[in-house]
Design the sequence.
C-alpha cells in the first residue's frame, strides 16, 4: 500500500513558485537575453533601445569600452533633448539637444524626414558609429566618427563628426521652436560639447535611429 502525502498550503506554494521559475526561464529563452540598455536607460523608446543593444552586440569587437554609450532618437523633434548619454555602470541617462542634417529635413520642419549615407547629401545617417579621435577644426574641439553599418559607412569620408554649433541651444529653441540644421554631423550646444566629448571617449558606441513611438 502506497502512503500518499497530505496536500498542504506550503506544498502548493512550493509548486507555484517552481512553476513560476520555470515559466520565467522559458520566457527568457524565447525572447533572448535581457537588454541591459533598457535597465540602465530612462526615457528611450523600447524599439530603439533594442536596436541599439543589437548593434552593441554585433559590433563589440570594434569598441574599446561599453561603460558609456549614446543613442540619438531622430524620431523626436529637434526642439527636445533626444541625444541620450547612458552610463551603463551607474544606470544614469543624460539627455541633450542635438541637430540633424539639413539633407534629412529639406523643408526645415524641425523633424528628420529621412536618413542618407550618400556623399554630398548633408543628411544624417542611421546606424552604429564608433567614436574616434579628437581634433580641432572650424567648430573647435570635435570628435571624428567611424560608421560600422552599410547605412553609415561613408561617415568618415563625409566628415560626419561630433561638434558644437551656435544654432543648437535652448535660446534657439525658444525663438524658432526648433534647432538649426547641420551638414549631417551630430551638432551640440556649446555649453554641452565638453561633456559629450569627455564622456563619449574614443572607442564607444553611438547609435542613431528613429523611435517607433509617435514623434513629439
Sequence:
Amino acid at each position: 500500500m502506497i502512503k500518499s502525502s497530505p496536500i498542504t498550503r506550503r506544498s502548493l506554494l512550493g509548486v507555484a513558485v517552481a512553476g513560476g521559475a520555470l515559466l520565467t526561464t522559458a520566457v527568457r529563452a524565447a525572447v533572448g537575453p535581457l537588454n541591459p540598455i533598457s535597465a540602465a536607460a530612462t526615457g528611450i523608446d523600447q524599439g530603439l533601445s533594442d536596436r541599439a543593444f543589437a548593434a552593441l552586440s554585433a559590433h563589440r569587437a570594434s569598441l574599446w569600452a561599453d561603460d558609456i554609450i549614446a543613442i540619438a532618437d531622430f524620431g523626436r523633434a529637434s526642439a527636445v533633448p533626444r541625444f541620450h548619454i547612458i552610463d551603463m555602470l551607474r544606470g544614469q541617462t543624460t539627455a541633450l539637444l542635438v541637430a540633424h542634417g539639413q539633407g534629412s529635413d529639406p523643408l526645415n520642419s524641425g523633424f528628420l524626414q529621412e536618413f542618407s549615407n550618400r556623399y554630398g547629401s548633408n543628411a544624417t545617417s542611421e546606424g552604429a558609429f564608433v567614436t574616434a579621435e579628437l581634433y580641432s577644426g572650424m567648430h573647435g574641439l570635435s570628435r571624428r566618427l567611424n560608421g560600422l553599418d552599410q547605412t553609415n559607412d561613408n561617415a568618415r569620408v563625409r566628415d560626419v563628426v561630433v561638434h558644437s554649433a551656435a544654432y543648437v541651444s535652448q535660446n534657439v529653441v525658444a525663438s524658432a521652436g526648433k534647432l538649426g540644421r547641420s551638414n549631417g554631423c551630430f551638432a551640440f550646444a556649446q555649453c554641452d560639447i565638453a561633456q559629450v566629448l569627455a564622456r563619449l571617449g574614443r572607442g564607444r558606441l553611438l547609435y542613431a535611429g528613429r523611435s517607433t513611438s509617435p514623434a513629439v
